[in-house]
Amino acid sequence: MPELPEVETVCRGLRPWLEGRRLASVIQRRPDLRWPLPDRFVARLEGRTIARIERRAKYMLAHLDDGWVLLMHLGMSGRLAVAADPDAPFEPHDHVVFLTDQGCQVRFNDPRRFGFMDLLPAHGIEDSAHFRGLGPEPLGNAFNGPELAARLAGRRTPIKAALLDQKTVAGLGNIYVCEALYVAGLSPRRQAHTVQGRRAERLANATRGVLRRAIAAGGSSLRDYRQASGELGYFQHDWAVYDKQGHPCPDCDCRVADTGGIRRIVQSNRSTFYCPRRQR
């Protein structure tokens, strides 16, 4: 599933093509994605100008000039990409197509149809079911060591599970939590309530750093992910521990023969990768 850096990368890729542009035409090629598309979806979008595109957690928000917001979620395999050739035939899984007044065509392609779209009023959007209860943005000013420590206080669950809880921090996913815990030197098995003070500060800084590097690199090129330009991201080549089971730790002197190298365990039905010597 695309995580926060992938969604942020797509948002940044779409802004030059869509911000300030009028939607001259919208093609809806099926009635639903994960859920039914909103009533009168095409009619409510055609003729509207996209004022700005933002990200909240793993959602993309296209603010329209009539006070409504087009919310988009990529799901597991969704792609929003600028068509290199607008005249090319649609692919089988091109479900929604946006055409601007400048002739730019953006196609939403989603083979598995776990993505979805919705239309929400901009006023009070944080109180909608999609956003209610979400934690702070990890790249925002409200996220820091003391805030993270407060949200982890009393949490008797592994720190990795706590970070994946969107009420703790918005938008974090499995890959970048593994990487952030590695950079912070914290075991994924550590109880969340013990991450206080300097540990919380290290983890907050590590989380921001890992996400920023991933965004700069264009996200992680998982099987289904593409940038808005159609290019692959390449942060996966910088992963320290994720999907590195049996490899030597890149930052300590442990040898594979001594420790087995990077280990993989399963937590909450998800793979966790970590260095048992570096992370405590």
Brief write-up:
Keywords: DNA damage, DNA repair, DNA-binding, Glycosidase, Hydrolase, Lyase, Metal-binding, Multifunctional enzyme, Zinc, Zinc-finger. This protein is of the alpha+beta class and 280 residues long. Helix content is 25%, strand content 20%.
Give a written overview of the molecule.
By secondary structure, this protein is α+β, with helices and mostly antiparallel strands. 25% of the residues lie in helices and 20% in strands. The chain contains seven helices and ten strands. The strands form three sheets. A four-stranded antiparallel β-sheet has the order 1-6-7-5. Strands 2-3-4-8 form a four-stranded antiparallel β-sheet, with helices on one face. Strands 9-10 form a two-stranded antiparallel ribbon. A hairpin with a 2-residue loop joins strand 9 (263-267) and strand 10 (270-274). Helix 3 (145-152) packs across helix 6 (197-217) and helix 5 packs across helix 6. It is elongated. The model is unreliable at 221-225 (pLDDT under 50).
Mean pLDDT: 91
Strand content: 15-25%
Please give the share of residues in helix: 25-40%
SS summary, helix count: 7
How would the global form be characterised? elongated
- Helix/strand-derived class? alpha+beta
Distance between the termini: 28 Å
Q: Walk across the major sheet and give the strand order.
A: 1-6-7-5
What's the gyration radius in Å? 20 Å
Q: Main beta sheet, described?
A: 4 strands, antiparallel
Oligomeric state: single chain
Uncertain residue segments: 221-225
N-to-C SSE string, H for helix and E for strand: HEHEEEEEEEHHHHHEE
InterPro entries: FPG_cat (IPR012319), FPG_Glyclase (IPR020629), FPG_N (IPR035937), H2TH_FPG (IPR015886), Ribosomal_uS13-like_H2TH (IPR010979), Znf_DNA_glyclase/AP_lyase (IPR000214)
Protein name: Formamidopyrimidine-DNA glycosylase
Domain Formamidopyrimidine-DNA glycosylase catalytic: 2-115
Active site: 2 (schiff-base intermediate with dna), 3 (proton donor), 58 (proton donor), 270 (proton donor)
